[in-house]
Design goal:
Distance between the termini: 27 Å
Radius of gyration: 23 Å
CATH class of the largest domain: Mainly Beta
Number of domains: 2
CATH topology of the largest domain: Thrombin, subunit H
Largest sheet: 6 strands, antiparallel, barrel
Helix content: 10-25%
CATH architecture of the largest domain: Beta Barrel
Structural class: alpha+beta
C-alpha cells in the first residue's frame, strides 16, 4: 500500500479521540429539556394496539362539532390525569469522598398501560439513582427503570399503582400528520404540574440528535410552547391521542421561542415493546469505529477515495469483524473504506444510521469496500454488539 495512506500512531489516536465529537448543523442549538432480533411478545402488542387514530378518545367530542376552545378543554380533561411529573435524584461525591444523594432533574411522562408503565425521554432518567412519579396531588410513587434507548431518547419506567388510578394516554399515528394541524402539549415546565399549551405542527421530517449524537429522523416541529420540564410529556392531536413525545427546543436562552421538537410516536411504537420485554432495543450494529472520508479530508488527511466511511477499528465478534472487514493496522496502514451497503452510498454516519434503522438483526447485506486499491463486495450478516469492552461510537 502506498505510504500516502499510512497513518501514524499519533494520528490514529487523534482520530479516535475526535470520534467523541459530534458536528451539529442547526440542531447544535437544540437543548434537552431536563434542568431487532428481539420481537415484542403478544401481550405487549395488544397493550399498544392502535384504535382508529381519527376517532376521539372517550371524553372528547367530535372536533368538527365543537368549538376549538371546547376541544382543548375536553382533550385536557381526558388526558391530563395520565400525564405525570418525574423527579430524579443522583448520587454525588463531595471533596472528602463521601457520597450523598440530591435531586438532579425533572421531566414529564405518559402512562401507557394499566400495568403502570410510563413513557418518557431517556435523558430525563439518565444517570438517576432514584425516581419518583407524581400525578399532581399528594400521592408520590417510587419508580423503577424498565428500559432505555439513548439512540431514540426514549425510556420506560414503572410504578406500582392500582389500575383504577391509571389513565392511559392512547397512541395516535404520526405517519399521517400534516403541517398546520392543531396540537396540544401537556407537561410540567419548570415544575408547574400539568401545564397545557397549544399550537400547530410547524414542520415535519426535521432531523434532530439524541444526546449521544445519534440522528433521530423525522421529528415533529411545533410552535406549542414547551420548556424545561416538558421533556417526555405527550404532544397530542385534537382527538386526544399522543402523536409525539416532547423532547427538545431550539433556544439560545433556554426558554421557549416557539420552536420545539417531538419524537414521532410511531418510533415509540417500535421501541417501547422491546424496552418492556428486553430493557433495551435490539438493533443491528456494524461493530466498528468509523469516520467519514469527507470529515478526515477536511482535517488534512490524504485518502484514496472522495467519499465513504473509514473503518478505524472493528470490535471483536461484531458484524464487521465476522465479515472480515479490517480497521487501521497496528503499523498505521489504512484499513477498509465502506463505499456503499446494498447499493446505498455511505457518505457519512447519518447515511449509516438511516440504513440500519430499516434493518433487523440477522439480515444479510452486501458491503462495497475499498481495500488495497481495489473495490470489493463483502457479504455481511448484521448482529447486535457483543458484550465486550466498549469502544467509542460504535455503529
Amino acid at each position: 500500500m502506498s505510504k500516502a495512506y499510512q497513518l501514524s500512531v499519533k494520528q490514529i489516536l487523534l482520530i479516535a479521540a475526535f470520534s467523541s465529537f459530534v458536528t451539529f448543523s442547526i440542531t447544535s442549538c437544540l437543548m434537552n429539556l431536563n434542568n431487532p432480533e428481539g420481537k415484542p411478545n403478544e401481550s405487549n402488542q395488544i397493550a399498544f394496539a392502535e384504535a382508529n387514530p381519527e376517532t376521539p378518545i372517550p371524553g372528547v367530542s367530535d372536533p368538527s362539532k365543537v368549538s376549538d376552545e371546547q376541544n382543548s378543554i375536553e382533550v385536557y380533561r381526558a388526558v391530563a390525569p395520565g400525564v405525570v411529573s418525574i423527579k430524579t435524584s443522583a448520587r454525588f461525591e463531595d471533596f472528602f469522598g463521601r457520597e450523598f444523594e440530591e435531586e438532579s432533574g425533572s421531566g414529564s411522562g405518559s402512562v401507557i398501560d394499566k400495568q403502570g408503565h410510563i413513557l418518557t425521554n431517556y435523558h430525563v432518567i439518565e444517570g438517576a439513582s432514584k425516581l419518583t412519579v407524581s400525578f399532581g396531588g399528594d400521592k408520590v410513587y417510587p419508580a423503577t427503570v424498565v428500559g432505555g434507548d439513548p439512540d431514540t431518547d426514549l425510556a420506560v419506567i414503572k410504578i406500582d399503582a392500582p389500575p383504577s388510578e391509571l389513565t392511559v394516554v392512547e397512541f395516535g399515528n404520526s405517519d399521517k400528520l400534516v403541517v398546520g394541524q392543531k396540537v396540544l402539549a401537556i407537561g410540567n415546565p419548570f415544575g408547574l404540574d400539568r401545564t397545557l399549551t397549544t399550537g400547530v405542527i410547524s414542520a415535519l421530517q426535521r432531523p434532530i440528535r439524541a444526546r449521544n449524537g445519534r440522528l433521530i429522523d423525522a421529528a415533529i416541529q411545533t410552535d406549542a410552547s414547551i420548556n424545561p420540564g416538558n421533556s417526555g410529556g405527550p404532544l397530542l392531536d385534537k382527538y386526544g391521542r399522543m402523536i409525539g413525545i416532547n423532547s427538545q427546543i431550539l433556544s439560545p436562552a433556554g426558554g421557549s421561542v416557539g420552536i420545539g421538537f417531538a419524537i414521532p410516536v410511531n418510533i415509540a411504537k417500535r421501541v417501547v415493546p422491546q424496552l418492556i420485554q428486553f430493557g433495551e432495543v435490539k438493533r443491528p450494529k456494524l461493530g466498528a469505529l468509523l469516520r467519514s472520508v469527507e470529515e478526515l479530508i477536511q482535517r488534512g488527511y490524504r485518502l484514496p477515495v472522495d467519499s465513504g466511511l473509514v473503518i478505524l477499528q472493528v470490535l471483536p465478534g461484531g458484524s464487521a469483524d465476522l465479515a472480515g472487514l479490517r480497521g487501521v493496522t497496528p503499523e498505521g496502514f489504512l484499513g477498509d473504506i465502506i463505499i456503499s451497503i446494498d447499493g446505498q452510498k455511505m457518505n457519512n454516519l447519518d447515511d449509516l444510521y438511516r440504513f440500519l434503522d430499516k434493518k433487523q438483526v440477522g439480515d444479510s447485506v452486501q458491503v462495497e469496500v475499498y481495500r488495497n486499491g481495489k473495490i470489493l463486495t463483502v457479504p455481511m450478516k448484521l448482529t447486535t454488539l457483543p458484550s465486550r469492552t466498549p469502544i467509542r461510537r460504535r455503529f
